[in-house]
From TrEMBL, chains A, B:
This is dipeptidase E. It holds the Pfam family Peptidase_S51. It is found in: Cytoplasm. Its EC number is 3.4.13.21. It comes from Mastacembelus armatus (zig-zag eel).
Amino acid sequence: VLTITRRLLLVSNSTLHGGGYLDHCQTQIQDFFGKDVKRVLFVPYALHDRDSYTKTARDKFRTLGYNVDSIHEASDPVDAVRKAEGIFIGGGNTFRLLKSLYDNKVVTEIRRRVLEDGVPYMGSSAGTNVATISISTTNDMPIVYPPSFSAIGLVPFNINPHYLDPDPNSRHMGETREQRIRQYHEEPDTPCVLGLKEGSMLRVEGHRATLLGTTKARLFSRGQTSVEYDPGSDLSFLLTDAH
Amino acid sequence: VLTITRRLLLVSNSTLHGGGYLDHCQTQIQDFFGKDVKRVLFVPYALHDRDSYTKTARDKFRTLGYNVDSIHEASDPVDAVRKAEGIFIGGGNTFRLLKSLYDNKVVTEIRRRVLEDGVPYMGSSAGTNVATISISTTNDMPIVYPPSFSAIGLVPFNINPHYLDPDPNSRHMGETREQRIRQYHEEPDTPCVLGLKEGSMLRVEGHRATLLGTTKARLFSRGQTSVEYDPGSDLSFLLTDAH
Ligand SMILES: [Ca+2]
Ligand SMILES: [Ca+2]
């Protein structure tokens, strides 16, 4: 059962073309973590060089008024989650990220902290994928084998970050993003997939979900025509069991 | 130990922009299967609609002088592999394909027939991915969870089908194909990855490998600069243990 305390900021992409790291969502980050959170627990597992990645996140969050502790610097990762005021899981490779979350046994504890204790959770790209039911709609290469594709499950649907509509001028014959998501929906009992274009993000406050940012999102549901939503749209219906 | 009888045709893509199904490689298909093979065993597991997919393959192969039996029409898939004169595994979703190969228990038997009996194996796109060490360099979405990413292992390296160089004009911030393959090579003990552009294919005859088709291929090796190869290049060095 999803509780009413759940607070999420699920961002499509860490960097928007022409901007710096997290620039395009910095006001949303400050609005989300607010003034009560002083320290954010960063999870750099999606990239190989965790020290360098932590420095990037730490430098950016410092300019926004937050101190960053990285989970990879903690002697006990589960305990670090247990004490976190806020959590931010960054992008990179989704398979590497999910495998590391399982290897470090923090999947259940992150879920518990967010759903039961109301600890605010921010994800970007791969960090957004792992917040959903499963990583089955990631764009990443399966460079390592995780023990499951099931993810943290903070929302009852899937997300495709970096979503982009088919390019009518493309001569490339690999599947379009839409075709890939349709293939997912050919499988039984597959949930909705929210395609978040670069520049968009989803904010969840309890039972309320709102599309934020400057670009649109496209919602794919099994056996139905996809629907596009503008920034500002109320997507709270995605949080109910029927979806 | 890889035997000298091995015969493979590993195609990047089933359809080239502006052409029909397998048009761009039809002369190579006839040259590969030759006049001795009369019936080709088709594996349609990568697509959801296996009947429709089999009709597409059957119609095309008939124009090339071959009859097609589909493995999904056989009462005993392992027995169908045991009796095959030639094998063709088509493209689609690589995860769905590999899971079905394991579910139907044909991975080992296909490997045995190709490496020990010299049965010619053709793969296209996902069918090329599963011919290599692992599916870790597929472009597809992980829509189902296979019991392993290890594949049939007919060659001692990996392939990235539909390979494309970075687009300098792109404003999209998702990883380029090159970045994705580099992330794979950040993991320990990862083999070479041959990026086969659309229009290219690899033909293997025993210990000899040759790049065919009209486009180039780019070879990625762990910790080294990538190298581009022209059609006609001898890539036999990829078949030795050092690679
Ligand atoms: Ca990624
Ligand atoms: Ca594919």
